Automatic annotation (TrEMBL):
SUPFAM superfamilies noted in UniProt: Amine oxidase N-terminal region
Span of domain Copper amine oxidase N2-terminal: 26-110
Protein name in the entry: Amine oxidase
MF-aspect GO terms: copper ion binding; primary methylamine oxidase activity; quinone binding
EC numbers for this chain: 1.4.3.-
Required cofactor names: Cu cation
Region spans: Disordered: 221-248
Domain Copper amine oxidase N3-terminal, first and last residues per copy: 122-216
Pfam families: Cu_amine_oxidN2, Cu_amine_oxidN3
Signal peptide: 1-25
Subunit structure: Homodimer.
Species, as recorded: Malus domestica (Apple)
Keywords: Copper, Disulfide bond, Metal-binding, Oxidoreductase, Signal, TPQ
Length: 261
């Protein structure tokens, strides 16, 4: 979800950086932070001054037979296999799939897809921009005023429009908005009747319809956090152990080991 509440984060990078070990040695280890930097440098060198949108960056996994052969080496620490990255980009309204060989610092494969093959994953940057567009769009501002709502209490999120067999489609998403005043459970307080569609390649609103005005559901009774619940609605653990912090598991490089007592 991309919302007005959270800053834009590169989720793919943050996940891999968190779980990666700087001393990766197994062929299936995720890319390390330094490898991500190398990949970005290699790609930008091949596409200078281009407005690239990174939709996915991850390890291009070697074939199973290659990994098994590597594991069967008689030495305790076999020499590392060449490291490659799979990169999916959007460039000039087309999707590019690149294979980057980090070992030789070069792009070794490039496949271009037209939009008839679907679209790649959304990234947080474009979703964050899309969710801000309604707040600068005069018809939306008027719609919020017409409902008597405080604009500072409105947040918006992105949702897929789906695909229903159309021969020609655009890379669009729909924007749904919610009212967060007096409640953290914003999804139960939708601002209904408003349809917003955004073209992600052009990052502009391409459809806007205000069909009807409906009252926003009340905030009362929407609290869902266990820490704020009162008996008898609070959690009943019945003596079950609670694992917190670093207790209960151990992170060994890229391996999570459970600790049972």
């Amino acid at each position: 979800m991309a919302s007005r509440l959270a800053p834009s984060l590169l989720v793919i990078l943050s996940i891999f950086i968190t779980l990666s070990s700087p001393t990766s040695c197994h062929p299936l280890d995720p890319l390390t932070p330094s490898e991500f930097i190398h990949v970005k440098t290699i790609v930008q060198k091949s596409y200078p001054s281009q407005n690239l949108s990174y939709q996915y960056v991850g390890l291009d996994e070697p074939e199973k037979s290659t990994v098994l052969s590597w594991q069967s080496k008689p030495t305790k620490t076999p020499p590392p296999l060449p490291r490659r990255a799979l990169v999916v980009l959007r460039l000039k309204m087309k999707t590019l799939e690149l294979i980057v060989d980090i070992s030789i610092r070069s792009i070794v494969s490039k496949t271009e897809f037209d939009n008839k093959h679907g679209y790649p994953l959304l990234n947080n940057e474009e979703q964050s921009v899309a969710t801000e567009l309604p707040f600068k769009y005069k018809p939306f501002i008027q719609s919020i005023k017409k409902r008597g709502l405080n604009m500072s209490e409105v947040v918006c999120s992105t949702f897929s429009v789906g695909w229903f067999g159309e021969a020609n489609t655009k890379r669009t998403i729909k924007i749904n908005c919610f009212y967060k005043k007096d409640s953290v459970n914003l999804y139960v307080r939708p601002v209904e009747g408003i349809t917003v569609a955004v073209d992600l390649d052009e990052l502009k609103i391409v459809e806007y319809i205000d069909r009807f005005v409906a009252p926003v559901p009340k905030a009362e009774g929407t609290e869902y956090r266990a820490s704020n619940q009162k008996p008898p609605f609070g959690p009943r653990l019945n003596g079950a152990p609670v694992m917190s912090g670093d207790k209960g598991f151990k992170l060994d490089g890229n391996t999570v080991r459970l600790q049972y007592h």
